[in-house]
Amino acid sequence: MFEIVERQELAQGTIVSNWIKAPKIAVKAKPGQFVILRANETGERIPLTMADTDPEKGLINVIYMVVGKSTALFKTLQVGDSYRDVIGPLGAATHLEKVGKVVCVGGGTGIAVLHPITRGLKNIGNHVFAVIGSRSKDLLIMEDRMRAASHELLICTDDGTYGHHGFVTDKLKEVLENNKDIGLAVCIGPVPMMRACCNVTKGFNVKTLVSLNPIMVDGTGMCGCCRVRVGGEMKFACVDGPEFDGHQVDFDELNLRLRSYLPEEKLSYDMFKSAHKCSCGS
Amino acid sequence: MAEETKAPEAPKKEKIPRQQMPEQPADVRRHNFDEVPLGYTPEQAMKEASRCIQCKDPRCRQGCPVEVDIPAFIKCIKEGDFEGAIRKLWEKNALPAVCGRVCPQEVQCEGLCVLGKKDQPVAIGNLEKFAADYQRNHGRDVLPPKAAPTGKKVAVVGSGPSGLTVAGDLILKGHDVTIFEALHAPGGVLIYGIPEFRLPKAIVASECRYLERLGVNFEVNAVIGRSETVDELLERFDVVFLGVGAGLPMFLKVPGEHYIGVYSSNEYLTRSNLMKAYDFPNYDTPLVRGKRVATFGGGNVAMDSARTALRMGAEKSYIIYRRGREELPARKEEIHHAEQEGVEFMLLSAPVRFTGTDDGFLTGVECRRMELGEPDASGRRRPIEIKGSEFMVEIDTAVISIGSSANPLLTKSTPGLALNKWGNIVADPKTGKTMKPRVWAGGDIVTGAATVILAAGAGRVASNSIHDFLTFGW
Ligand SMILES: Cc1cc2nc3c(=O)[nH]c(=O)nc-3n(C[C@H](O)[C@H](O)[C@H](O)COP(=O)(O)OP(=O)(O)OC[C@H]3O[C@@H](n4cnc5c(N)ncnc54)[C@H](O)[C@@H]3O)c2cc1C
Ligand SMILES: Cc1cc2nc3c(=O)[nH]c(=O)nc-3n(C[C@H](O)[C@H](O)[C@H](O)COP(=O)(O)OP(=O)(O)OC[C@H]3O[C@@H](n4cnc5c(N)ncnc54)[C@H](O)[C@@H]3O)c2cc1C
Ligand code: SF4
Ligand code: SF4
Ligand code: FES
Ligand SMILES: [Mg+2]
Asked: Which ligand 5 atom lies nearest to the CA of residue A223?
């Protein structure tokens, strides 16, 4: 059992942060790696990236957006409650390298995934530009932690309620134009955002890492559910990734496969919501 | 010659036919996940056991990879000494309840039984299952004696039949044993692959609980190579046994494998068995309920997938296989059960490409007819494409069951292991020793995908060698 020791609701309760007791994972985890969690015996195996760790206290931090049944169920877990299973660290760690100047772009909960990578890149001596964005000011997460993890932080909101009025790609382009010597871009967020970022960086010929989030089951390379096409080859995101060269990724295929279970997911979430309404009134 | 003439004279009593295993009727069971065979009654078991003529030089035993003393355990059953039967079985096989159900008996023990020459062989598998089930349901609940603690620590990686056997053997010899399992439940393929209707999960759980009561520690959710490396385990343990199976799914490498509805059998079966997707939405993991399902391949895994599809509500469940009926590698009983339940076999057919809608849903598979040519390296006749014989099959779900190979996750993170060209660990077949000091390996990760009894047998070989090493240092 893996106990929640700290819990926060972010972005008006649409996003939740958990610090979970998982000492073995905490000492091993590296930036870019994820865990798989299961709330209870009937639960799904849900992959979430570790946004942070505290090896001394034996804690890992996951930050998730509530999008369906399982994440809604996670949200009901309070401090003192436990996840039944937490498995990890999984996935290949980010290859952190000193390249000079880098730009890190995050959107939505992708910012949580981006955070340890950004910090890692800064810690080994890169000059780090960070661009983060959300639909609106209230939905932006981890501004302070991202500010600390970078040298220059740029903020964008789709509705202009905070920072630049527009998409992260606008600021990404600006940074690349002003800094011709940028050696690496890391772009993590919703699939359309990552695709758009890759289109921008291609134009500047800057190597770009993205973190892919296909549907997973085991997370150990056993089922093949998480297969993605990269450079024309089939890769398993849970072991070969989740990070890949964004210029090689077939985003169309990823987008398709993410929709595999839409009707089942809706059924499952609707049932959960109607069962839950009676007990907590929300 | 001499042996022929010395064979016991058939006494002039009424010949007992092979006892039929009572089963759920096909039209009932294709809609449920309960076990298909219902099991012998004690009377049936004793009657079947009485068919065995107790050969002095039992051929059946040569057919069993672990040399179960078959006449001896059958004699016990015949005499109603069911506890004696299970003790005999346990001497050679730690998992009789499983093997009685899933061994390919027709090419192993039963395939060599002398009765099979003129009549049907003794139902050795059914008897083995009977003895194990009887013990589980009625047996006295006493644990076998354990040797005094040796203070030696053994790490077993993987909880399939090989790992469970190693753990069971070494705990009785007084060593301290911990099993590390990547998934959230132990049992390996027995829990995530082989379906409930063929091997009830309660049996696997009961085997694991038994080991736990003996003192084996289970650490689930431990992905060795990620959570901890083998070298790190070697710092805490005297020896490490690797029984991680052959879990890497193979794909067909034809266009369209990304369409929604195309699964590897590992995914399809893991969702339905381990995650209990057949009970969705009571369980949260979904599995698309295909109406027209094609399974590619002809082994046990393919039969399991095709029969799972029926139970998930498929109207059509096809097996599409490149070779002919004779070449189907599955157990005979599985093929027979699949046919009874309404699985349709499209033999001598191979997939060319999948088709799908613009939004990514599978709609069909184009296949090509094959004919059989000369035998290939495996000794089986090689399928050859017939040009221009393409045809379409309309399907919404495809399950690819063409085999699995070694998962590199653990081996890549373990320096000093020798691997063969397929990525399997090289280990001495007589001891299970790998090229890395203090590391043993066995089961599918060494042999490539094989059988439960071979994996269990490899576990026994390794546990003997490990015990020698821990006791005498070699
Ligand atoms: C490596 C990896 C890291 C991730 N990290 C984060 C993170 O840090 N924060 C975060 O908010 N989200 C993260 N995700 C996405 C998260 O796993 C999904 O949002 C979650 O599984 C949705 O489950 P649900 O039951 O709540 O919603 P559902 O309604 O079941 O699903 C919503 C959508 O999420 C996707 N999804 C469903 N099941 C899975 C599954 N088993 N695995 C992956 N995706 C699935 C599908 O596209 C689906 O349409 C990550 C995904 C991966 C693969
Ligand atoms: C669907 C299906 C049906 C089958 N039907 C039959 C049948 O009817 N008869 C028969 O004899 N055989 C059958 N087989 C084959 C048989 O199940 C296998 O040969 C046998 O289970 C192999 O045993 P094993 O001990 O080598 O490993 P496995 O049973 O494969 O177990 C390996 C275990 O190791 C775990 N693991 C892997 N990597 C790691 C890691 N890095 N860290 C920790 N744990 C890890 C896995 O999660 C798994 O639980 C079938 C196989 C399948 C898939
Ligand atoms: S273990 Fe398998 S092969 Fe050996 S006797 Fe039992 S059923 Fe036959
Ligand atoms: S070969 Fe057949 S008849 Fe002879 S001992 Fe074995 S099971 Fe009995
Ligand atoms: S999630 Fe199963 S192989 Fe990646
Ligand atoms: Mg879900």
From this structure: 2
